[in-house]
Design brief:
Elements: E1 6-7, E2 23-30, H1 34-45, E3 48-53, E4 62-69, E5 72-79, H2 85-93, E6 96-103, H3 107-116, E7 121-130, E8 133-141, E9 147-152, E10 165-166, E11 178-187, H4 193-202, E12 207-212, E13 223-230, E14 237-244, H5 251-259, E15 263-271, H6 274-283, H7 295-303, H8 310-316, E16 319-323, E17 326-332, E18 343-350, H9 360-374
Parallel strand pairs: 2-5, 6-9, 11-14, 15-18
Antiparallel strand pairs: 1-12, 2-6, 3-4, 3-10, 4-5, 7-8, 8-9, 11-15, 12-13, 13-14, 16-17, 17-18
Bound molecules: fe (ii) ion.
The site of fe (ii) ion has 6 residues, from strand 11 and strand 15.
């Protein structure tokens, strides 16, 4: 492993942040069956029913279900008719993330600033209202057909957004301890990484906080490069991956081929008790990637003392890594869809602010074993 990874110190000046973002607002997936997807994320991932939009609310185009767990809100949207924008997106990409919504104080200003700085418009500032108040939303394109929607909700007291009604059901399995979105990773075309790094710097005021090259992230067969972009205040982190030349097809190339373009590769969600969370997820049928048991023979030599019982980590397949500030525990699900595209990461940070570089090799070899089974390596 190459230890020359560049770690760029970040100095934050709030007054100079032209695009302040309070956090992730919601993540919207375009899927072929929103009702069943929402049920799956409830039963398998511990989300609970939150809001609904569809024929019953006067929405004749799409049906959407919103589920929530602590600060994480996921929206699943399906079309009600053929030849729709949502349906075409699903036909091309399969189920996937369309909107990474960002919570801001002023969605008009965020939009105008982004447009002045070279963004491509997705939605002009639009105000919607109901009895709970008003919300302003605007949007810009990022990589592929993925978009960022800016959500201004300071004058809104409803549960989600105007146009939605509360979704109440008797079936709400308990939460599994997922707290918030830690980071979301985009896969972009070969040669596209720096273009999107520049986009996040110039249009969104993000800074690059880390970079990994193909010497950091390579196995015998495959390689990728990655740069991690952070919003000024650090509340949003978007690593951007691009494939690098390897002997066989990399996981990023596999994604790009099956997603038919650039898009969100994984959503990392934070827990403060990964052993409990992963035990619960596994019991509910969530499938995780596994590294060989030999990973655990040397892990404590690499990361030093940790609070967790190593046997418990081994039993569940949880990975550990350390940086200058502490350590982290992480694990990755298998792809969530028939196409080998989007997956989830479960992460618990115990001081560490990095992304598990020490696990890349073992992890990518685990992914390659899966690719081999799929015949896509
Ligand atoms: Fe990650």
């Amino acid at each position: 492993m190459n230890l020359q990874t560049q770690e760029i110190p970040k100095i934050y000046n709030e007054a100079e942040d032209f695009m302040p973002i309070n956090g992730t607002d919601y993540v919207e997936f375009y899927v072929s069956n929103a009702k069943q997807a929402a049920h799956f994320y409830k039963s398998a991932f511990g989300f609970k029913s939150h809001a609904y939009s569809g024929l019953q609310t006067g929405n004749k185009q799409n049906e959407s279900y919103v589920v929530v767990q602590d600060k994480i809100k996921l929206v699943f949207t399906s079309p009600l008719r053929s030849n729709s924008i949502v349906g075409k997106h699903i036909d091309k990409h399969g189920d996937g993330v369309k909107v990474v919504a960002l919570w801001v104080d002023d969605a008009t200003k965020s939009y105008e600033t982004a447009m002045e700085r070279g963004a491509k418009s997705y939605m002009e500032p639009t105000t919607t209202e109901d009895k709970h108040g008003k919300v302003v939303q605007s949007g810009i394109y990022t990589y592929g057909e993925t978009v960022h929607v800016f959500v201004e909700r300071k004058d809104y007291r409803g549960d989600f957004l105007p146009g939605y009604q509360a979704w109440e059901t008797t079936y709400n399995p308990g939460p599994v301890g997922l707290k918030f979105v830690d980071h979301m990773v985009g896969n972009v075309e070969l040669g596209g990484m720096n273009k999107w790094v520049e986009f996040y710097e110039k249009v969104m005021g993000f800074t690059q906080i880390m970079s990994f090259d193909d010497k950091d992230i390579s196995t015998e067969y495959t390689a990728l490069m990655s740069k991690v972009m952070s919003s000024g205040n650090g509340r949003i982190k978007f690593p951007i991956n691009e494939p690098a030349a390897g002997k066989k097809k990399s996981q990023v190339e596999e994604y790009l081929e099956f997603y038919e373009g650039e898009g969100v590769q994984h959503i990392a969600v934070a827990t403060d008790n990964i052993i409990k969370t992963v035990t619960e997820l596994r019991d509910r049928g969530v499938e995780f990637l596994r590294v060989p048991d030999t990973y655990y023979d040397a892990v404590l030599d690499r990361v030093g003392t940790i609070d967790e019982e190593i046997l418990a980590l081994k039993e569940l397949g949880i990975l550990v890594d350390r940086d200058d500030e502490g350590y982290l525990l992480q694990i990755f699900t298998k792809p969530m869809n028939p196409r080998p595209t989007m997956f989830f990461e479960i992460i618990q940070r115990k001081g560490a602010t990095s992304f598990g570089k020490g696990n890349f090799k073992a992890l990518f070899e685990a992914i390659e074993r899966e690719q081999e089974l799929r015949g896509t390596l």
